[in-house]
Design a protein that fits this description.
This protein is of the alpha+beta class. It is built from 13 helices and twelve strands. The chain has a five-stranded mixed beta sheet with strand order 5-6-1-7-8. A four-stranded antiparallel beta sheet has the order 9-12-10-11. It has a three-stranded mixed beta sheet with strand order 3-2-4, covered by helices on one side.
Length: 369
C-alpha cells in the first residue's frame, strides 16, 4: 500500500535522530492528595504510613525545601517538617489516574515504556511530524496530562536518547520542559556530576570520582587507561557521557491480538446487516495494527446471538497484513460459516498471530532547532 511519506519525503536515514520523551509526574502521590483535598494545597504533605518503620513514599514540593524526600523514615521527615500533613497512600486512586496519564502518552507515541505509575519513556520518532518541533510536542503533552488529570503537572524531557531525555525531565522540576537537541547533548551533560550517569549509584559514583572524574564531561574525555579500574562499566559510562545511548523504548506488553467489537442496541440478522460492521471493524483493526507496527497473520470473527451464545470462526491469512482490505475479505468469507439466520447482538473482528512490521520506518523531518 502506498503511503504519503513514500512519495514526498527523502529516504529515511539510519543516522536520523530519534525523538525520545521522558515524562515524570511531579510529586505524584502527594500531588494527587492535594488535587483531591483542596485543604492540602500549599501545605507540606507527606504520603506514607505513621508506623515506627514507615517511610515517606512522596513528599509534596512544600516539604522538599526542608530536606525531605522519598524513602526517608517518616519519623525523620516529621522532625524536619513538624507541621507536615501525613496522608496514607491510596494506591487504587493513583493507579486510576495513572491509567489516564498513560492513555495520554499512548496518544503521543506508538511506543510507551512505563517505568512506574508516574513515569514513562515515549518514542515519538514517528509521531513527531505531527508537531511543530519538540517545544510544541512537550507543551501539548503537558497540557493533555493536566487536562486528563484535572490539574496535575508533569515534567518532560525531550532528546534523541533515553539517558539524555531522563536527565532533561529532571532539569527544571516541577512542571518542567527541557529540550536537548541531539547535537547539544554532550554540552548539556558535560557540567553535571557523575552521579547523574544512568546506572551509577552512590557507590559507583564514588568509584568514578576516585579516578579524578567529577563531571560527566570529564568522563566523556577520559582515556581507556583512566577508566580501566571500572572494567566494562568504564566504556559504557563514557558512551553515555558522550550522549550515546542506543537503548530503545520498549513497550512492556506486546499485544497478542488486536480486536474491535460492538454491542448493538438492537439485534441484527443477515449478511447485509452484519457486513457494514465488519467494514468498520476491519478499518479500526487495520488502523491499530498500523500504529502498533504489527501485521496480523490471521482473522477471527465473533458473533454473539440474542441468547448471549458466542460463536467464533477464524482463518489464517496467506500473508500477514495490516490493510483493511484483506482483513475484510477474510472476514466476509468467514461469515459463510455462521448461521446467518440467527439474531445477533454483537459483532467483532480480531487480527491475531501478530508479527512485527519490519519494513523500514520513514523517519519524518523534525525541526529540532
Ligand atoms: Mg515522578
Amino acid at each position: 500500500m502506498a503511503t504519503d511519506t513514500e512519495s514526498g519525503s527523502p529516504p529515511a536515514s539510519a543516522e536520523a535522530p530519534r525523538v525520545i520523551v521522558h515524562a515524570d509526574m511531579d510529586a505524584f502521590y502527594a500531588a494527587v492528595e492535594q488535587l483531591d483535598d483542596p485543604a492540602l494545597r500549599g501545605r507540606p504533605v507527606l504520603v506514607g504510613g505513621r508506623g515506627p518503620r514507615s517511610v515517606v513514599a512522596t513528599a509534596s514540593y512544600e516539604a522538599r525545601p526542608f530536606g525531605v524526600g522519598s524513602a526517608m523514615p517518616m519519623a525523620v521527615a516529621l522532625r524536619r517538617v513538624p507541621d507536615a500533613v501525613v496522608v496514607p497512600p491510596r494506591f487504587d486512586r493513583y493507579k486510576a489516574i495513572s491509567r489516564g496519564v498513560m492513555g495520554v502518552f499512548a496518544e503521543f507515541a506508538p511506543e510507551v515504556e512505563s517505568l512506574s505509575l508516574d513515569e514513562a519513556f515515549l518514542d515519538a520518532t514517528e509521531t513527531a511530524a505531527r508537531f511543530d518541533g519538540p517545544a510544541d510536542l512537550g507543551r501539548r503533552l503537558k497540557a493533555a496530562v493536566r487536562e486528563v488529570t484535572g490539574g496535575l503537572s508533569v515534567s518532560v524531557g525531550i532528546s534523541a536518547t533515553k539517558f539524555v531525555a531522563k536527565v532533561a525531565s529532571d532539569f527544571h522540576k516541577p512542571d518542567g520542559l527541557t529540550i536537548v537537541p541531539p547535537d547539544e547533548a554532550r554540552r548539556f551533560l558535560a557540567p553535571l556530576p557523575v552521579s547523574r550517569l544512568w546506572g551509577a549509584g552512590p557507590k559507583t559514583a564514588a568509584r568514578i570520582e576516585a579516578l579524578g572524574l567529577r563531571t560527566i564531561g570529564q568522563v566523556a574525555h577520559a582515556d581507556d587507561a583512566t577508566l580501566a579500574p571500572l572494567g566494562r562499566m568504564g566504556p559504557h559510562f563514557r558512551q553515555l557521557a558522550r550522549g550515546i545511548d542506543p537503548r530503545a523504548v520498549i513497550s512492556h506488553r506486546e499485544p497478542k491480538s488486536i480486536g474491535w467489537e460492538r454491542t448493538l442496541e438492537s439485534d441484527i440478522r443477515g449478511r447485509a446487516a452484519i457486513e457494514p460492521l465488519l467494514v468498520a471493524a476491519a478499518d479500526a483493526v487495520a488502523d491499530r495494527l498500523g500504529r502498533a507496527r504489527r501485521l496480523a497473520g490471521g482473522v477471527r470473527v465473533k458473533l454473539k446471538d440474542s441468547e448471549f451464545q458466542i460463536a467464533t470462526r477464524q482463518c489464517a491469512l496467506p500473508q500477514p497484513v495490516d490493510d483493511a482490505g484483506p482483513l475484510l475479505a477474510a472476514a466476509r468469507r468467514l461469515l459463510d460459516q455462521f448461521d446467518l439466520g440467527r439474531a445477533y447482538r454483537l459483532v467483532g473482528l480480531t487480527g491475531y498471530d501478530l508479527v512485527a512490521a519490519d519494513e523500514p520506518v520513514q523517519l519524518p523531518l523534525f525541526p529540532w532547532h
